[in-house]
Amino acid sequence: MPRIHRLSTRLANQIAAGEVVERPASVVKEILENSLDAGATRIDIDVEAGGVQLIRVRDNGQGMEPDDLPLALARHATSKIRSLEDLEQVGSLGFRGEALASIGSVSRLTLTTNHREDSSEGCSALCEGRDMQVEVRPAPHPRGTTVEVRDLFFNTPARRKFLRTEKTEFGHLEEVVKRLALSRFEVGFTLRHNGRVVHALKPALDEVQARRRVAAVCGPAFMEQSIHLDSERTDLRLWGWVGLPTFSRSQADSQYFFVNGRVIRDKLIAHAVKQAYRDVLYHGRHPAFVLFLELDPAQVDVNVHPGKHEVRFRDSRAVHQCVFGTLHRALAEVRPETAAPPVRTAEGLAVDTETGEVARQPGLSWGAPPAPGPAAYRPSPVPAPGLALEQVRSYAGLHPPAAGLPEQAAPEEVPPLGYALAQLKGIYILAENAHGLVLVDMHAAHERITYERLKASRASEGVRSQPLLVPQAMAVSQREVRLASDHAALFSDLGLVLEVAGEESLMIRQVPVALRDADIPALVRDVLADLAEYGSSDRIEAHLDEILSTMACHGSVRANRRLTVPEMNALLRDMEATERAGQCNHGRPTWTQLGLEDLDRLFLRGR
Ligand code: ADP
Ligand code: MG
Predict the structure, then answer these.
(1) pLDDT tens for residues 39-51?
(2) Distance of CA 34 from the midpoint of ligand 1 (Å)
(3) Which residues, in sequence order, are CB contacts of 191 under 8 Å at separation 6+?
(4) Mean of the pLDDT values across residues 71-79?
(5) Which of 144, 163, 216, 255 is most buried, by CB atoms within 10 Å?
(6) Which residues, judged by CB distance below 6 Å to any ligand atom, belong to the binding site of ligand 1?
(7) Are 464 and 496 found together in one domain?
(8) Residue 303 sits in which domain range?
(9) From ligand 2's centre to the CA of 95, what distance in Å?
């Protein structure tokens, strides 16, 4: 029988390193967090061979006393917390006191530091994967600290085998630097790889500079096509930028979320964001965002994971509600008058023509008689939901001419989508606004307007629901029974009446008419799972919306219908008054704009 013995310090540290030091990127994360905790305002990062050969980070933070150097390299030694109370409201990024010890146990680590402003005499310590016998010697260094990590995993071949190519490792490392650069606008960062400058980010001290930094990290297209938001509730503040739905990505790779300045990947947040974009994003696409959540540190538990990229919220429902609510509102406001016109990005928008509803038959509409048949666009007699009445009235004074802008129109009198000029191939409306030419996909636009109207009437009239002839029993867990009765109102508001039939069974008594053919027990189960995990669920609504969306699609004006100029103008006005009018129900853009400058460029015309 094997006897129990104590692990050597070195082995214990190497085991801890297994959790904290996965690859060069995780080393950089820990070292940068230390620099930020030390109050640095400038951080220079030099990397060689993807970080495997060398990572050197130099900061101008507060530095360390010579006597503290051996402790900095020891496990379970930290300057950041002293007691359990401190742990319950951590203000620093680090607090576990194990990063340097872990990194030092799997690399050749040199720490050089100086804590004095008035002298350049610092000290240095080297630790080479051995037991923590560190020797401190004098070394020149300005105030601040330099950490040098060479030959990562030189003594742990198993770990080394998991490393990818230099390019991939550097990619991960760069991502870490980008995330931390977004978390602290006031700190300057430079990142060099094999001697080449990859990022040089000056401290961003005002709004303009902050926008510049976001553009440098997320690309200028994101900055141009995102909405800025800032919402404060009693004890939660959420601010940042969210990409317009038309600026979506094929990967979830442009998503940055920070909680009290800490980079976080969180399922609850991801769910809230996804739910907010549900109605406006092209299927399978991912939104881009940079969001900062600020709340009382006592409301967040950061001691969940050694890598500290997960947190637990004390009131997770409130956080979910705040993120979902703020984004949902911001996205609903995206209408022609607020939004920059959707521009196709270099990446392009994956438009799947198979799901496109418009049958494109070029030429067929030419010469077709102007037939305002049943599916032709009818100007809406009543204002659309969320209609800005004042706005519509002020435009009403301006009489649109036969086509295009009235000659005497002042730019501020021209509605955002302008006035119709003509119809192209029975598919597009061409219109003139103050900037130039507007192109509208008439089916996509009408579909969104109809859909929003159907949703609004459901909201005002309620969901039509009918009792089941034979109530349906379903077996569930005790916890699910509790969730179902706690959230009975959520179900019944959407037309689903459930009853507790026993300790482990529910009875479905009434279902929404629109969902009578759906698999209701499966839906109920999914909703209960959401409620358990996130404290909220929009699944029933999503199902109901899907049906409305299909209805809207079939009820909308088809291609190859001739619209008269007044009909087209009415459609443009309705778009301006409709929430989420920038995308059709499938997340495709409904309109775009070619300004005079764009047209001039096309014709090489200097102005
Ligand atoms: P933690 O950050 O959890 O405290 P670390 O192992 O990362 O643990 O660092 C140990 C200690 O070393 C820190 O608490 C801090 O006092 C000191 N330290 C590390 N890096 C720096 C730095 N760049 N500047 C000043 N002090 C540092
Ligand atoms: Mg640390």
Answers:
(1) 999 999 999 999 9
(2) 5
(3) 45, 47, 174, 177, 197, 198, 199
(4) 90
(5) 144
(6) 30, 34-35, 38, 59, 61-64, 72, 78-80, 94-101, 145
(7) yes
(8) 219-332
(9) 7
